[in-house]
Automatic annotation (TrEMBL):
Its cofactor is Mn(2+). It comes from Shewanella salipaludis. GO terms for molecular function: 2-isopropylmalate synthase activity; acetyl-CoA C-acetyltransferase activity; manganese ion binding. Keywords: Acyltransferase, Amino-acid biosynthesis, Branched-chain amino acid biosynthesis, Cytoplasm, Leucine biosynthesis, Manganese, Metal-binding, Transferase. It catalyses: 3-methyl-2-oxobutanoate + acetyl-CoA + H2O = (2S)-2-isopropylmalate + CoA + H(+). This is 2-isopropylmalate synthase. Catalyzes the condensation of the acetyl group of acetyl-CoA with 3-methyl-2-oxobutanoate (2-ketoisovalerate) to form 3-carboxy-3-hydroxy-4-methylpentanoate (2-isopropylmalate). Belongs to the alpha-IPM synthase/homocitrate synthase family. LeuA type 1 subfamily. Pathway: Amino-acid biosynthesis; L-leucine biosynthesis; L-leucine from 3-methyl-2-oxobutanoate: step 1/4. GO terms for cellular component: cytosol. InterPro entries: 2-IPM_HCS-like (IPR050073), 2-isopropylmalate_synth_dimer (IPR013709), AIPM/Hcit_synth_CS (IPR002034), Aldolase_TIM (IPR013785), LeuA/HCS_post-cat (IPR054691), LeuA_allosteric_dom_sf (IPR036230), LeuA_bact_synth (IPR005671), PYR_CT (IPR000891).
Length: 522
């Protein structure tokens, strides 16, 4: 049996489907490029039949990504498989992942069919998908709760129909490791054609068992793990990619398998996913939490000073967490910035040097010293910013009387290049700024979540504001970063206003296309 475990990342499918506001095509592409750099073998990037937006993002990613295999999800229905195949067809090689539920609960209550009917649908779907590619994966949804005889029959039939990967999901995160490992062992013992497929696992974290279940499955012969960056996904999330990668690397002599993950990319990929998905990582999260490499107690610090391996089983550097604090100030030239970006693993195609350098100088003037994490944040914000942004925040002046609980804000916003100034009051500085921005842009949004965090450490940190805003039933995620938290809040709302404006333009365009089609058909 091979000692290589295939890493199948589903951040952009299972992870994305759990977000409050969906990602834009550009954001998904940014994550896909980071996943490619991280070295995932397969990336599942969407469910093309679900919406035209999903179709477009799968197609865009399939066109761009070359080093990882791109995959899309389809129910065991021809129309789903057609959509997946069509979106993926721009790639040289691709995978279609089709699935159907196999547990009695799902078969009877959700599908309202018999197990025999479901078996026929699965076989039909796999054969149909094979018309488009040799690389077909089949998943037995809710396998963790499927009677083992039925599961063995389903796996054997799907392999015979042409599936080259068979995925065994613990869809509701119900099993414990001994039980889940037992399911995988039984499949290897009882399914006669099992050697013709790779056995994959896809575990959810409802009982906090997803990583342990996946590792146990590998010990029993599974050779693909489905996971997401930071463990994001439905409900409590999916098995976390970074934990799997570091378990298999750190305990290689015990487990005897390896992956193609470039561990040094873990830290920044985690950061990017957390930022774009508006999903903060808990401080004590294994591998990527802010405290994962922090030693607090005196006894531990003393041990660390004597020998690092007293309390560290892996180093922060191994996941790309570089504590280098090179002194960058407004006197630092472009070459210093470029050099730091290179040391952090970014190439010039990841950011716009001119925009980054301008933003760096502005920040250096305000803060004095700029750190690696600031630079990363600026490069990230530049990637976020639309260079042709319709609304741009030019000035924000706020006066606040905290004893009375009133504040006044004046904003100057460039709208398509023309400046407009508006003032408004509110029950605090952020509220006043938001009212003034709403006036200037003539968009009234409902803020459903507002999160204030820090990017960086201590007094030198930048304020980061993440908001989710609802406009006409649709959620938009805005991000702002500045030394001043009110300014960061205002930037986040302006970011949302730009997304709304873009969504309105897309809607207008679609309506015009529809009208011209109708006129054409009269
Ligand atoms: O959790 C699950 O069962 C899934 C399948 C579609 C693989 O996400
Ligand atoms: Zn899932």
């Amino acid at each position: 049996m091979s000692d290589r475990v295939i890493i199948f990342d589903t951040t952009l499918r299972d992870g994305e489907q759990a977000l409050a506001a969906s990602l834009t095509v550009k954001e998904k592409l940014q994550i896909a490029l980071a996943l490619e750099r991280l070295g995932v073998d397969v990336m599942e990037v969407g469910f093309p039949v679900s919406s035209p937006g999903d179709f477009e993002s799968v197609q865009t990613i399939a066109r761009t990504i070359k080093q990882s295999r791109v995959c899309a999800l389809a129910r065991a229905l021809e129309k789903d498989i057609d959509a997946a195949a069509q979106a993926l067809s721009v790639a040289e090689q691709f995978r279609i992942h089709t699935f159907i539920s196999t547990s009695t609960i799902h078969v009877e209550s959700k599908l309202k069919r018999s197990f025999e009917q479901v078996l026929d649908m699965a076989v039909g779907a796999v054969k149909y998908a094979r018309r488009f590619t040799d690389d077909v994966e089949f998943s037995c949804e809710d396998a963790g709760r499927t009677p083992i005889d039925n599961l063995c029959r389903m796996v054997e039939a799907a392999i015979a129909a042409g599936a080259r990967t068979i995925n065994i999901p613990d869809t509701v995160g119900y099993t414990v490791p001994s039980e889940f490992g037992g399911i995988i062992r039984t499949l290897f013992n009882r399914v006669p054609n099992i050697d013709q497929a790779i056995i994959s696992v896809h575990c959810h974290d409802d009982l906090g068992m997803s990583v342990a279940n996946s590792i146990t499955a590998v010990e029993q012969g599974a050779r693909q793990i489905e996971c997401t960056v930071n463990g994001i996904g439905e409900r409590a999330g999916n098995c976390s990619l970074e934990e799997i990668a570091m378990i298999l690397a750190t305990r290689k002599s015990l487990l005897g398998v390896e992956t193609g993950i470039r561990a040094k990319e873990i830290h920044r990929t985690s950061n990017l996913v957390s930022q774009l998905c508006n999903m903060p990582v808990q401080a004590n999260k294994a591998i990527v939490g802010a405290n994962a490499f922090t030693h607090s107690s005196g006894i531990h610090q003393d041990g660390m000073l004597k020998a690092q391996n007293t309390y560290e089983i892996m180093t922060p550097e191994s996941i790309g967490l570089n504590r280098n604090n090179l002194n960058m100030t407004s006197r630092s030239g472009r070459h210093v910035i470029k050099h730091r970006m290179e040391e952090m693993g970014y190439s010039e195609r990841d950011y716009d040097m001119d925009l980054l350098y301008q933003a760096f100088l502005k920040l250096a003037d305000k803060k004095g010293q700029v750190f690696d994490y600031d630079l990363e944040a600026l490069a990230f914000m530049e990637a976020q910013a639309e260079t042709d942004a319709h609304y741009q925040l030019q000035q924000l002046v706020v006066q606040s009387d905290s004893t009375e609980g009133v504040a006044t804000a004046t904003v100057r916003i460039a709208i398509d290049g023309e400046s407009k100034t508006e003032a408004a009051t509110g029950n605090g500085p952020v509220d006043a700024a938001y009212n003034a921005i709403a006036r200037a842009t003539a968009h009234k949004v409902n803020i459903s979540s507002y999160k204030l965090g820090a990017k960086g450490e201590g007094q030198n940190a930048l304020g980061q504001v993440d908001i989710t805003a609802n406009y006409h039933g649709q959620n938009f995620h805005g991000l702002g970063l500045a030394t001043d938290v009110v300014e960061a809040s205002a930037q986040a709302l302006v970011h949302v206003m730009n997304l709304i404006r873009r969504a309105d333009r897309v809607a207008d365009c679609k309506q015009r296309m529809q009208q011209s089609k109708e006129l054409g058909s009269v």
